[in-house]
Amino acid sequence: MADEVLSPRALNRATLARQLLLERAARPVLDAVEELVGLQAQIPRDPYLGLWSRLEGFAPDDLGRLLLDRRAVRVVVMRGTIHLVSADDCLLLRPLMQPVLDAELRRHPQFAPALEGVDLEAVLGFARALLAQAPRTGGQLRAAMAGRFPQHDPAALAYACRCLLALVQVPPRGLWGQSRQVTSTTAEAWLGRPLAAAPSIDEVVLRYLGAFGPATVADIASWSRLTGMRAIVARLGPRLRTFRDDRGRPLFDLPDAPRPDPDTPAPPRFLPEYDNVLLSHADRSRFDAGAMRFSRPGAAVHGTVLCDGTLCATWRVVDEDEALLVDLVRPLCATEAAAVLAEGQRLADFLGVQTASVRE
Fold first, then answer.
1. Looking at the predicted structure, is the pLDDT value of residue 222 above 90?
2. In a 3-state reduction of DSSP, which class is residue 359?
3. Could you give the CA distance from residue 104 to residue 124 in angstroms, rounded to a whole number?
4. To 10 degrees, the CA torsion angle through 260, 262, 268, 270?
5. What is the Rg, in whole angstroms, of the alpha carbon atoms belonging to the chain?
6. Which residue, 198, 216, 251, 294, has most beta carbons within 10 Å?
7. Can you say how many angstroms the Cα of residue 117 is from the centroid of all Cα atoms in its chain?
8. Is residue 121 over pLDDT 80?
9. Interhelix angle 98-107/87-96, nearest 10 degrees
10. Which residue intervals of the chain are DSSP H helices?
11. DSSP string computed for 53-110
């Protein structure tokens, strides 16, 4: 029996449903963070905006308390980027993503040569003990490295710690409305528990499909930046359902995951500068109607707007926080434009901005 073919619109609605973007969910924040397998967080405000677009009645303090109570953390995981994840997922995901960080360290044009011949075990042991005493800023860690290992490049040693230790960024970094330079300690010191000794990549791939599927093997690899995904998906074959996309490529999914009717309405949604829903597939055409590129080299990064499930605009706050400006990148009918403006005004209210406007 031939696999069912899923159109880009069918893939769009399936992923939006799992990303809580078809309708806002009444869900505890920590449950949502785990269901989404974390939120992109290199910009501290982004997880708050991502959750605001996904959860009913979300308030910034709902997330802030999780960070202060150490039930959620900011840590480098998928794609070697900062994500906000639950404490449990930090201990699970960070060791699984170590190969990504190893590759980054090997490829670094400045620091890799500076680390040749360095006894990294001694460096990491010193850093673990230092960071267990108290979190340190990058400058403080480099200064300590310079004092302990004066014969080596302290910036290279600190970068090795960033790649080889499970470093979490501690509050007040990441709290709504607060700003502080990155200050880090190890996950083990912050959470009082060790990293998972034998984490299952199979279970994480299944969670990816639950949050982002249906997906190709290349999509899974793009989300994680890990290699060897084809063998993992083959091993998981009996637990998966297969489809084809409109180009004949195999898609994999959980058998009982939601796949709504492609005609299901998709209301406007405002996303932050970086949101995993737009960064977790090798082929992002399920969200792009052909009107814009996902990134423009050298261009400023703005938030994005989905209308009918696909990218329609960018947004930013201008005029010293007085206005939220939506710049359309494809035409909208009057009804769509009014819906985008209404959602933009709701976001403006959340951000404490006076007005929202839409321009072509």
1. yes
2. strand
3. 17
4. 70
5. 21
6. 251
7. 35
8. yes
9. 50
10. 8-18, 29-35, 46-52, 60-68, 87-96, 98-107, 111-114, 120-133, 138-148, 154-164, 187-191, 201-212, 217-224, 229-236, 334-351
11. TTBTT--HHHHHHHHHTTSEEEEE-GGG-EEEEEHHHHHHHHHHTHHHHHHHHHH-TT
Place of tokens 């006894």: 119
Tokens of 330: 């494809």
The amino acid at residue 25 is A
The identity of residue 219, as a single letter, is D
- pTM, entire model: 0.94
Measured CA to CA, the distance from residue 153 to residue 173 in angstroms comes to 27
DSSP for 251-285?
EEE-TTS----TTS----EEE-SS-GGGTS-S--T
Residue 324 in 3-state DSSP? strand
Span of 178-192, 218-232, 290-304 with lowest mean pLDDT: 290-304
3-state SS class at 225: coil
Distances 273 to 50, 254, 315 between C-alpha atoms, Å:
10, 29, 9
Q: Which amino acid type is present at position 124?
A: L
183, two tokens: 């200050």
CA 171 to chain centre: 19
**What span, in angstroms and rounded, lies between the C-alpha atoms of 194 and 9?**
43
d(CA 90, CA 300): 30
Structural domain spans, the chain: 20-191, 288-359
Longest dimension (CA), the chain: 67
Question: Both tokens of residue 272?
Answer: 């932050």
Confidence of residue 297 (pLDDT cuts 50, 70, 90): very low
Phi–psi pair at 139, nearest 5 degrees: -65, -40
Question: How big is the chain, counted in residues?
Answer: 360
